[in-house]
Amino acid sequence: MDGSIDSEKRALRAELRERRQQRSAAALEDASAGIRQQLDTLVAELGVRSMSCFLSTPTEPGTREFIAGALARGIRILLPITRADGLLDWAVAEEEGATAEGMFGMSEPVGELLSPVAVNDVDLLVIPAAAVDRSGMRLGWGRGYFDKTIGSMEKCPPVYAVVFDTELVDEVPRDLHDQPVTGVVTPTRTVTLTTR
């Protein structure tokens, strides 16, 4: 990775992380409700029966309400589990599914592990991001898990990153391995950016 790009990414991630930590509990609750509504609409429009999603951290736009509602409607959801080799295993989400702390201190599902290729059959990927630019380039949190997943898929379905409204920006620093997303889901809107 180019040193100047790496420095730009680190600085932007630190700024975004700080902004996220400043959000009030009420703002985060509102964001979670908005994300649920936006994802419910997206899933219905795309006719999704199987998808991947992620368990949001306390400072991310919340996905947990959406996951609970989607499971109740019979949608199959795969949740990521980090591995030391930089790939993701997957577990099928359950309504009362147990979680444990993963490799980076984030909550991950506990259950039967499915291999990295399990995600190849989903209709939609919903992934975390620090920011996304208007060309569809995503700035992740620096470990490359989702870039590797997207880049390795033979037939990649639509990929939407979940961000706060202010995190859809004009441009993010990018490197060769960075993968674009189809669009973003924010608490107030869903924006399609590319055709992938």
UniProtKB/TrEMBL annotation:
It is an enzyme of class 6 (ligase). Its EC number is 6.3.3.2. GO terms for molecular function: 5-formyltetrahydrofolate cyclo-ligase activity; ATP binding; metal ion binding. Its cofactor is Mg(2+). Substrate binds at residues 55, 60. GO terms for biological process: folic acid-containing compound biosynthetic process; tetrahydrofolate interconversion. It catalyses: (6S)-5-formyl-5,6,7,8-tetrahydrofolate + ATP = (6R)-5,10-methenyltetrahydrofolate + ADP + phosphate. Keywords: ATP-binding, Ligase, Magnesium, Metal-binding, Nucleotide-binding. It comes from the Bacteria. Belongs to the 5-formyltetrahydrofolate cyclo-ligase family. This is 5-formyltetrahydrofolate cyclo-ligase.
